[in-house]
């Protein structure tokens, strides 16, 4: 009927036939039914105050309580904090700063060399203006003690990532637009079988940081090409079979030394599966190449954790491929006070190109699959 007005009609039961105040129903079987009509109008408290000055003060107090924690005044779309509402860092702290929650992508699982992290961008219409996000990457240096970490990088989302300035290992995958508030980052150049800790802060236009949000993730075991490992196992058998010349010894040595620990594990596995009757792999290496060269090769087998060592003993390891879309941004100067988060996707089309990244995963299975 009108803005702010609500009308409700409710049944209050039926009148007994003996009630003389009720209208007689046209049907003797249908009892009269009284209806209660209630009309209410919602209005701000300050509108109920007739004094103009009091109304203004009440409105200002209400706005202060809503947007400035009651410790400042609303000026247009920002808070002017009282002198008592400044933090230890000297920055105004009356307007609550949104707390972004960092999470792992629910669509793209971590690979041995990258993870995809996400959070939702949010800021109130009045109070603070979020102008940037900071993300820190730390590597856990002790498998048994996660408190021992090494900080590898701290990047600004605006200055380092979407500007294309210095983020070859970090690329935006999704940025906010009018339909979504999600920010998604691809973080590459990670080491396999390693635990990482990522920390996120929001930053407002005064330089104040939000409460931090953390994610800890362990990257999977290194990717191996099992088909190639089988081929190398066959090649090594052929080189070791019969009389082995100096040239064949050197070829075998160079081939095995360049493999790296994960692939060497698979070569050892396949060799022993097919050719162990001619001598176990480590014994044949020592016999054909000598203790020193064999030791240099076999020492690589200890570089893996017990977890990955166990997985690399699976009868079959497939190679699974998936693709990730990301924005490759060339260098451009982004002004944190001059862009709109809701228009960021549109604005980055001028300086960023959408590309596709291929990601590899180990697919562990048995012989019959």
TrEMBL record:
A Pfam entry, by short name: ASTN1_2_fn3
UniProt-listed InterPro entries: Annexin-like, ASTN1_2_Fn3, Astrotactin, FN3_dom, FN3_sf, Ig-like_fold
Highest taxon in the source lineage: Eukaryota
Annotated ranges, domain Astrotactin-1/2 Fn3: 98-219
Any one of the GO CC terms: endosome
Domain Annexin-like: 221-313
GO biological process, one term: neuron cell-cell adhesion
Name this polypeptide is given: Astrotactin-1
